[in-house]
Write a structure and sequence with these properties.
single chain, about 375 residues, alpha/beta, seven-stranded mixed barrel, 10 helices
Length: about 375
């Protein structure tokens, strides 16, 4: 069945439909990773997006139970150059086409995604639709579409829930977290409590955690400013690790501002340099916004810890006085390299150091 990918600037690409046979619209995201399509599709950071994969062929390994980053994906569509109709992996439980059809998500095949990528590099971010006919009515509807600003509200858990363990007690603030993040803390023997994005600092402190994690999530950080008082209220009391959207909010809570990237980062092979050591990690990125370096020039609270080698984007910050820091990239990978998982290990070490410090101070005053 012929279908079309249309952009708000009037551009149309003809292809073949697969997955759900519905009309769908959203913000177009170009994902340059050569692998990991299931993780990308199920990652809540892509809520409301139509994802175009630049890999030549997508779907070869099917869909398997180990690569879910959420149970209920919230993307709006998938665009590929060539859809694999045969699953060539023993772990594949179903094809990508069947998976999307089951979820009610449309896909479009036989699109020159690299030409699409070059077009977006010139025009900047655009709204897009997958439609049956590329007529003026479809373009008018797309141009009139108002993208939502409540993506975090859509995907954050409504109620706290545990991910039990026997080690360090950690509260994870859910802005749209990935299952892989929970897996990484599980292998580090952590007892987790996942709480909604609207949770207050007082309630988090009442849970008596050893540390707090601000997860990644979707949307413009300006739309989640309600979380800033919570961040300010906990960073001086507990070790704090922030990732992705959580990192952007951590920066904003300490006087920095954010901006949209001219060339967005959606891929698996971004080289990031740690400023203090020169260490270079190959990291996974899925973000459209970044901390504005101009807002850090006279900032007395934050220290730059990581920079993107390609475009000098600020990829990590640390608080100068409190045990709090964050990274823009995804330290758990999934998909992508696990080069940066030491960020999570270092958070464990920071928690232990702070607990040891608190214990010595308590002994001194006895």
């Amino acid at each position: 069945m012929q279908r079309y990918l249309i952009l708000e600037d009037g551009t149309a690409f003809a292809g073949t439909g697969f997955g759900a046979s519905i009309v769908s619209s959203g913000e177009l995201v170009i994902q340059t990773g050569m692998t990991g399509y299931q993780e990308t599709i199920t990652d809540k950071v892509n809520t409301g997006c139509i994802i175009a994969f630049t890999a030549p062929t997508v779907g070869l390994v099917g869909v398997n139970r180990d690569n879910y980053e959420s149970i209920d994906p919230s993307i709006r569509g998938v665009v590929v150059n060539e859809l694999a109709h045969v699953t060539a992996h023993q772990g594949g439980k179903m094809s990508l086409a069947d998976f999307l059809d089951q979820l009610g998500i449309p896909g479009i095949n036989q699109i020159d995604v690299r030409a699409l990528r070059r077009h977006i590099d010139v025009t900047g971010p655009q709204k897009a639709s997958i439609v049956d006919a590329a007529d003026e009515h479809a373009f008018d509807q797309l141009r009139a579409l108002v993208l939502p600003h409540n993506q975090v509200q859509q995907v954050s858990t409504e109620r706290p829930y545990p991910s039990p363990g026997t080690g360090r007690n950690i509260v994870v603030v859910d802005f749209g977290l990935k299952h892989s993040l929970l897996r990484e803390f599980a292998v580090r023997d952590c007892n987790l409590t996942i709480v909604p994005a609207t949770t207050t600092a007082e309630r988090i402190l009442n849970l008596d955690p050893d540390g707090v994690v601000l997860s990644d999530g979707p949307g413009d950080p300006e739309d989640s400013q309600g979380a800033l008082p919570m961040i300010s209220g906990i960073q001086e009391h507990l070790p704090l690790l922030s990732i992705g959207l959580g990192y952007e909010l951590f920066a904003m809570a300490n006087g920095a501002t954010t901006k949209r990237l001219a060339h967005e980062h959606h891929g698996l092979n971004f080289a990031v340099r740690e400023v203090a050591t020169g260490r270079i990690d190959i990291t996974s990125h899925d973000h459209s916004f970044t901390v504005d370096p101009a807002s850090l020039e006279h900032n007395e609270e934050l220290l730059i810890t990581h920079l993107n080698i390609l475009d000098q984007t600020v990829e990590g910050l640390r608080h100068r006085r409190f045990p709090a820091y964050g990274v823009q990239f995804q330290p758990e990978g999934a998909p992508g390299s696990n080069d940066a998982d030491h960020v999570l290990t270092e958070f464990m070490e920071l928690i232990d150091a702070e607990k040891d410090k608190a214990g010595k101070e308590a002994t001194r005053y006895e």
